Amino acid sequence: MVLELADVRKSFGAVQALRSGSLRVEAGSIHALIGENGAGKSTLVKIVAGVHRRDGGTFRFRGDDVDFGSTADSKGSGIAVIYQEPTLFPDLSVTENVFMGRMPLGAGRRVDRAAMHTEVEGLFQRLGVHIDPRRPARGLSIADQQIIEIAKAISLDAALLVMDEPTAALSGVEVDRLFAVARSLRDEGRALVFISHRFDEVFDLCDTVTVMRDGAYIGTHQIAETTVPALVAEMVGREVADLFPKTEAAIGDVVLSVEGLTSAGVFRDVSFDVRAGEIVALAGLVGAGRSEIARAVFGIDRYDRGTVRLDGANVRPGRPTVAIRAGMAFVPEDRRQQGLVVDSSVAHNVAGVIRTRLSRLGLISTAAENKAVRPWASRLEVKTNALDMPATTMSGGNQQKVVIAKWLATEPRLLIIDEPTRGIDVGTKSEVHRLLSELAGQGLAVLMISSELPEVLGMADRVLVVCEGRITAELDRSEATPETVMAAATGTTPDRIHLEHDTEMVQEVTA
Amino acid sequence: MSTLEKTPSAGPGSAPRRGPDLAKVTGDLLRSRELAVLVVLLLLVVVATVKSDGFLSGDSWRDLLLTPSILLLLAAGQMLVIITRNVDLSVGSTLGITAYAAGDLMSSGSSPWVAALGAVALGALLGAVNGVIIAFGRVPALVITLGTMLAFRGILLHWAGSDRVNAGEMDPGFLDLGTAQVLTIPVLTIISLVVVVAVGYYLRTSRGGRELYAIGSDPDAAALFGLPIRRRVLGAFIASGALAGLAGVFWATRYGGVSSNAGEGIELQAVAAAVIGGVAIFGGSGSVWGAAIGAFLLVTIDRVLPILGVPDFYQQAVVGALIIGAIVLDRVLASRAERRLAVEREVAP
After folding, report:
1. pLDDT tier at B132 (50, 70, 90 boundaries)?
2. Contact A143 B12 (CB under 8 A)
């Protein structure tokens, strides 16, 4: 047994990210770790990597009890981790990125560049890619960056290799090469942990699978003895249909009209409408350009060509203030960083975007703020005892409600919401969904970006699928199925996707 | 991979990448920054020589090389700190304290060697104060070194009062060093250049040097890589302080007297020299060569502008325009490069 985790717990403030994580990985095997977003997989990985320290539970590596205080500790013990998002130094060369922290020294304690370049070239050959080891990492595609992460992990010669969704940004050929390398590492007797949302990859590559749900261990199976429906049932643990109640709403006139929106290298020829009372979902793989489209529509990023119209009037590009005045609201993906001033009170947060309207002679009084904010807070059932409590003390679900309340105070015509329930525990997810559904019922146009296919299928009246910066499919509620969305998201035709295991492979698109 | 096949065009894929020429272009751009500043510097010297015959001879030549020696040291130290995404505003005050300490040691009978080493050690100590607070307290360097800039100056004022160390109290051999030359090149400048080369060598060839760049390039990634961030940042501040201490020694020997306002405002010149020389203020890139050329340029401008007949009160504005121009140029080049990379990524598959 190389890695043994039992009943590991970890909390961040009030949020319990990991209630009871367990994982046992044997040498010479590839172990899949699966679960929905927010199931606690990444937290578990970060504990293994030494990024976080566990609050409790057992953690054994190669038979010894360990407690890594830093990533250097875990690396030194023989653990290599590839994170979901590549973490490279843009200013340094590819080679230096591979060897940073442990560069080989030659004569006179000088960094041995020649040796490093040779080894990196050998690694790239093994991975079958052509990247110049001497170029800086800045400007590399996500796929290339991921390749560098993989090369780094291999060169560490680790006993345990953890890969957190390494294939999300890779093409088919690259995935095949990665798997070949993974198998050869397994045959050398190393242990690998592979986190993925794609069942075909899990079944293709792994020997064993562990399922997590809501921060807890659910079960471990031999791949040969389990099926996709069985795993999905364990991962979800509830019926998808009950979770996302989008009520029927009268669909009104076109509110948002986007035509031919293009931004070089990011997205091309994006055209779509959103009507009043309608929820339109932008679906697709991470990195397909969904968030970028939304940011351009709202004026955060500039675009090269195309028009954005709200209620028939052109919206000037590149100016969020103009977009807000025209009637747009934007709830970003990362609410702690972009949507919420976490250290400020709820009232401050909600009043933030309507400051100018509330101020008298340039000054804002707390009384005026509270007066303006109270109706929204009560309507959203934000459970805060007092409006002057700092937002940081609230749960993820309530924080998200505060962000939505903030924007509703501007009385928008269109609400753009990026990953409405990311990082929100399952119980409050449905509350956020009910709220969105209600708002649509009142005639608000909603443009929702979501990586969770159940959410997309449950909430959206129409699904726009984005693949590599283009809208590859526009599906009505009746046409949208896991297969059709997945096909458009990966740029294939539905009949090429033979979902041999089951039609309910709803989790795949969350990759 | 039996079922879902993503299109091969999802990324640049296995197709040969256009990496090599890109890297070359980027490398050329980076190098050209130092070159561009060097060209401006040489142009200035040429113009000044044309305008004023004696510019490259005798005392004028010596001053041209000698005056930058102090700023060279400070710019090299500052550059070390800036590439880690920090800044050290206390070096002017450190220079003042250490210059006074060196003079004071000599006037109380110590040998010049003891005085010089003492000053460098004191500078390193003051740098360590900055470094410990910033690296371990996780507070912004801008605020902390602004505080220590005032605090160190305050200590010097308390210590020196209205007193000043005069040339008569210092060792005559020590004072001669200030004007000594080897093959018409001032000794102080030679020492400074040796220091610059040593810093450049360290940054280029040692693990520590590469890690300093990494820390400034992406602090979060540096933490994930398990780099000894605190130790490196502390080291950078100690080096900056020690170099400021050496600059203090230079100050004493060059000017032959130290009062409590020695080195006031020079910290901003050090930052300016680094920035003009292409050191990114947000860390991660730039070279000590650039910072050194920047230091030469700043000092030379001060001397050349009067020769060109630019009135005194415009001189600072010219320097300011140079800094702003350098940063705007950086920004424009960076965003153009980013755009080009984005477009190429799209075209590549």
Report:
1. very high
2. yes
Banded pLDDT at A506 (limits 50, 70, 90) = very low
Q: Indicate if the pLDDT at residue A187 is higher than 70.
A: yes
B39 at interface of A, judged by CB pairs closer than 8 A:
no
Cβ–Cβ contact B158 with A under 8 A: no
Question: A160 and A303: one domain?
Answer: no
Residue type at position A412? P
Cβ–Cβ < 8 Å for B100, B262: yes
The whole-angstrom separation of Cα B286 and Cα B213 is 9
In angstroms, the separation between the Cα of residue B285 and the nearest Cα of chain A is 6
Q: Chain B: give the shortest CA distance to residue A436, in Å.
A: 32
Shortest CB distance from A141 goes to which of B205, B220, B345? B345
> Is residue A350 within 8 Å of residue A406, measured between CB atoms?
yes
Chain B residues closer than 8 Å to A497 by CB? 3-4
Q: Give the count of beta carbons closer than 10 Å to the beta carbon of residue B193.
A: 17
User: Is residue A425 a contact partner of residue A214, using CB atoms and an 8 Å limit?
Assistant: yes
Instruction: Look at B221 and A500 and tell me if their CB atoms are within 8 Å.
Output: no
> What pLDDT score does A207 carry?
92
Residue A203 lies in domain: 3-88+140-237
Chain B residues whose beta carbon lies within 8 Å of the beta carbon of residue A91? 213, 216-217, 280, 284-285
Closest residue in A to B208 (Cα) is A101
Q: Are A495 and A488 in contact (CB under 8 A)?
A: no
Residue B36 inside a domain? The answer is no
Contacts of B28 in chain A (CB under 8 A): none
The answer to whether residues A201 and A282 belong to one domain is no
- B296 Cα to chain A: minimum distance (Å): 26
Domain-embedded: residue A124 = no
| Interface residue B28 vs chain A (CB under 8 A) | no
- Assess if residue B50 is contained within a domain: no
Question: Are residues A210 and A279 both part of a single domain?
Answer: no
Domain span holding position B215: 58-309
With CB atoms and an 8 Å threshold, state whether A468 touches B9: yes
User: Which residues, in sequence order, are bridge partners of residue B304?
Assistant: none
Report residue A381's pLDDT band, with 50, 70 and 90 as the boundaries. Answer: low
Query: Please, are residues A275 and A255 in contact by the beta-carbon 8 Å criterion?
Result: yes
For residue B204, what is the nearest residue in chain A, using CA coordinates?
A111
Whether B282 has its CB under 8 Å from any CB of chain A: the answer is: no
* CA B349/CA B346 separation, integer angstroms: 7
Residue type, A322: V
Whether the CB of A106 is below 8 Å from some CB of chain B: the reply is: no
CA dihedral A152, A154, A160, A163 (to 10 degrees): 60
Q: Which of A100, A171, A177 sits opposite B225 (nearest CB)?
A: A100
Cβ contact, residue pair B26, A73, below 8 Å: no
pLDDT in tens, A28-86: 999 999 887 667 888 898 899 888 888 888 999 988 898 888 888 888 888 988 887 77
Size of interface A-B (CB pairs under 8 A): 183
My answer on whether A164 and A311 are in the same domain is no
How many structural domains comprise chain B? 1
CATH number for position B305: 1.10.3470
- Last residue of a domain, which of A213, A237, A261? A237
Report chain A residues whose CB lies below 8 A from the CB of B333: none
Asked if residue B137 belongs to a domain, the reply is yes
Q: How far is CA A429 from CA A27, A38, A469, B18, in A?
A: 38, 11, 28, 45
Q: Give the count of domains, chain A.
A: 3
The DSSP code for A23 is E
Q: ipTM exceeding 0.90? A: no
Kindly tell me if the per-residue pLDDT of B88 is higher than 90: yes
Nearest Cα neighbor of A150 from A128, A118, A132 is A128
Q: Which residues contact B98 (CB under 8 A, 6 or more apart)?
A: B119, B120, B122, B123, B126, B244, B245, B247, B248, B249
